[in-house]
Amino acid sequence: MTAAPELESIRNRYRETFGSVPHGIEDRLRVAHATGRLDVEETFATLRRLVLHESPLGTRTQQLVHVGQLLVLGRGGPARLHARGALQAGATLADLVGVAETALITGGAPAYALGIEIVAELFDAAEPPD
């Protein structure tokens, strides 16, 4: 598939947030491109930019809020993605622990456990090998 300028523009928005384009996003873009519906993805990417990057909260805080909401909903995959986005925006692993602890209050033990699982994965990935 030829990478139309519209596709690259959308991909660049995700690269800005996550450092790369997630596989699920690539799938959506492929389907949208093949079915002539890139305008939907462009509109969605514009909304995401307004909410995530132009929020009064700032990108770092907005990503942390996003992670907390996803933990409470039990959405592990998206929570992992936005946890990496939070780190990309300047959050720390300690910040993510704080989000997991808050999720304990609002979503119970399953939300907390999922949050700590994600932080542990990120911690392991950040540690240099022995």
Describe the overall structure:
There is one protein chain. The chain is an all-alpha fold and 130 residues long. It is 79% helix and 0% strand. It folds into 2 domains: 3-53; 59-126. The chain has helices at 5-18, 23-34, 38-53, 59-73, 76-88, 93-107, 109-126. Helix 4 (59-73) crosses helix 6 (93-107). This is Carboxymuconolactone decarboxylase family protein. Pfam families: CMD. Residues 40-116 form the Carboxymuconolactone decarboxylase-like domain.
Number of continuous helical runs: 7
Helix- and strand-based class? mainly alpha
Strand content: under 5%
In total, the number of domains comes to 2
Helix content: over 70%
Basic shape = globular
In the predicted model, the low-confidence regions spanning at least 5 consecutive residues are none
GO molecular function: peroxiredoxin activity
Protein name: Carboxymuconolactone decarboxylase family protein
Organism: Nocardia stercoris
Pfam families: CMD
Describe the protein's topology.
Elements: H1 5-18, H2 23-34, H3 38-53, H4 59-73, H5 76-88, H6 93-107, H7 109-126
List its traits.
0% strand; CMD-like; peroxiredoxin activity; 130 residues; AhpD-like; 2 domains; mainly alpha; Carboxymuconolactone decarboxylase family protein; 7 helices
Offer a quick outline of the entry.
By secondary structure, the chain is mostly helical. The protein is built from 7 helices and no strands. The N and C termini lie far apart (42 Å).
